Amino acid sequence: xxxxxxxRAFSQILSPRFRGVFWKSMGLTILLLIALVxxxxxxxxxxxxVSSPWVDTAIAFLTxxxxxxxxxxxxxxxxxxxxxxxxxxxxxxxxERDYAQDEPGAPMPxxxxxxxxxxxxxxxxxxxxxxxxxxxxxxxxxIIFFLANGYLLGREYFQFVAMRFYSEADASALRARHSxxxxxxxxxxxxxxxxxxxxxxxPLFATAFMVHVFKRLDGKDQATVLPS
Length: 228
Known about the structure:
Order of helices and strands: HHHHHHHHH
Oligomer: single chain
Helix content: over 70%
Strand content: under 5%
Largest sheet: none
Mean pLDDT: 77
């Protein structure tokens, strides 16, 4: 079921509306990171002062280079936050194409969407900081990385999609009933996240993927409910 859902999600990534969300998220991410790099560069120039011009130039170059490298690592997580503003649009595309006979989900309020995106960013950053320390422990570092990210990615993306149809409590209950399946779905998303360049597609793929997963798990639950 998961491989079928993943295949259907990938088949939609290059559709016009998906590309529109990608470029909007990428544009906002680049603007934010440029502003951040410029701010930090100015702060470095303000607090690091040397008398030798060539040393000053070398420090400025190394600082700028380091900031650009750091910004490169931040592109994927920051883009995920901005893409969170457009996840309803992605969900609607999938629902309209593949589940037109079903009742459409309700868009999440902007404020709530921002809160969930910020929470998701903090969780991912926090878990990956812990994973960095575990790099010193050979043998389990990759396992921890994938399990932690798989759990978080599966939980957050499924929760978002489910909350288009259910209250937060009911969405959490549905997720708890199918926690193993959602964990494996999250591991598949984590696999994409670990691939440079392709990881920029993670928010689009993960949302479309989880719409398919949600529909199948919810349909399975509905089918098991016997009429009274």
